[in-house]
Amino acid sequence: MVRFPPIPCLRSAALLAFLCAGALLPALPGTAHAVEMGEDGLHKEPWFTVTFRDVAEDIATAQAEGKRLVLIFEQRGCIYCRQMHEKILSDPEVSDFIKANYMVVQYNMFGDEEVTDLDGETLTEKTAARKWGFVFTPTIVFLPEEAPAEGSVSQAAVATMPGAFGKLTFLNMFRWVREKGYEGEEHFQKYHARIINRMREEGKAVSD
Question: Where does the Thioredoxin-like fold domain lie (predicted)?
């Protein structure tokens, strides 16, 4: 499974107060648009899918729609989550690709909503995050096309992207998974570098 070097939004009191107080900060410069805030303090995209968070059922639902299931873990006050929504997911090139190819379900890193793991264990969002080893927000988890016969989400995930990245890295990760790059010999970093080199050869601007 592919993992990225994390860019954390940790829960410690000092960092949470200083780095993750996004809900208390003024609008970020260059913000594309304001994002709706839910009662749980998480930013909401209108195209996120609300489910009962039974992961096996969600994989099957996504598959029936010709899509892949993605879980996004966020937390209240996370400035990196806010940047992801306002600067990355607001971009039509990114959002249109994700909507066409993925079913996205949002999880609250410290939430209490019920979750059913692939192994049948009933958890809460926060205990699921601990069980699966997710400690950064945002963390984006890519699931396989079909639910495995055994194992948990952390074992089944084909790729995990923790932290906030620029548009091209972010979008290329979704493209790489859609193309099943994790089954081939070309690691994501090489895939990403190849696309950047191609863009430069075509005279296109590359920002990340």
Answer: 62-151
CA 141/CA 125 separation, integer angstroms: 14
pLDDT in tens, 83-119: 999 999 999 999 999 999 999 999 999 999 999 999 9
Q: How confident is the model at residue 37 (pLDDT cuts 50, 70, 90)?
A: very high
Amino acid in the structure at residue 208: D
Q: What is the DSSP letter of 5?
A: P
> In this predicted model, what pLDDT tens digit does every residue of 144-155 receive, in sequence order?
999 999 999 999
Q: Alpha-carbon Rg of the chain, whole angstroms?
A: 17
> C-alpha angle with apex 25: 20 to 26, nearest 5 degrees?
150
Q: Are 202 and 163 in contact (CB under 8 A)?
A: no
d(CA 127, CA 109): 9
Residue of 158, 177, 57 lying closest to 117 (CA atoms): 57
CA quadruple 135, 139, 145, 147: dihedral sign: positive
What topology does CATH give the domain 2-165? Glutaredoxin (3.40.30)
How far is residue 11 from each of residues 18, 86, 117, 136, measured CA to CA in Å? 11, 22, 24, 9
